[in-house]
Amino acid sequence: MYAVVLTGPERLEVQEQPVPTPAAGEVLVAVSAVGICGSDLHAFHGQRPGM
Predict the structure, then answer these.
(1) Torsion angle, CA of 9/28/2/44, rounded to 10 degrees?
(2) Is 25 helix (H, G, I), strand (E, B) or coil?
(3) Both ends of the chain: CA-CA distance in Å?
(4) What mean pLDDT, rounded, does the chain reach?
(5) Percentage of the chain with pLDDT > 70?
(6) Contact predicate 47/39, CB 8 Å
(7) Where are the alpha helices (DSSP H) in the chain?
(8) What residue segments make up the domains of the chain, in order of their start?
């Protein structure tokens, strides 16, 4: 699968990641769409360290 990863302030990378295997009692959800919110933009601009 592919993931868009925030690697630093204002730095996004598309990375190939292994498909996770759910543990007992967990499920794997197929994502068909995503969105962003204001806190995502703060993280993108480096205003939320640790996010």
Answers:
(1) -10
(2) coil
(3) 22
(4) 90
(5) 96
(6) no
(7) 38-44
(8) 2-44
Structure-token match 């592919």, residue found: 2
> Phi, psi (5° rounding) for residue 25?
85, 0
- The answer to whether the beta carbons of residues 30 and 15 sit under 8 Å apart is no
Q: How many helices (H) and strands (E) does the chain have?
A: 1, 2
Task: Report d(CA 20, CA 23) in Å as an integer.
Answer: 9
Q: Is the pLDDT confidence value at 48 over 80?
A: no
- Amino acid identity of 16? E
Query: Which pair of tokens denotes residue 25?
Result: 């009692």
Read off the amino acid at residue 46: G
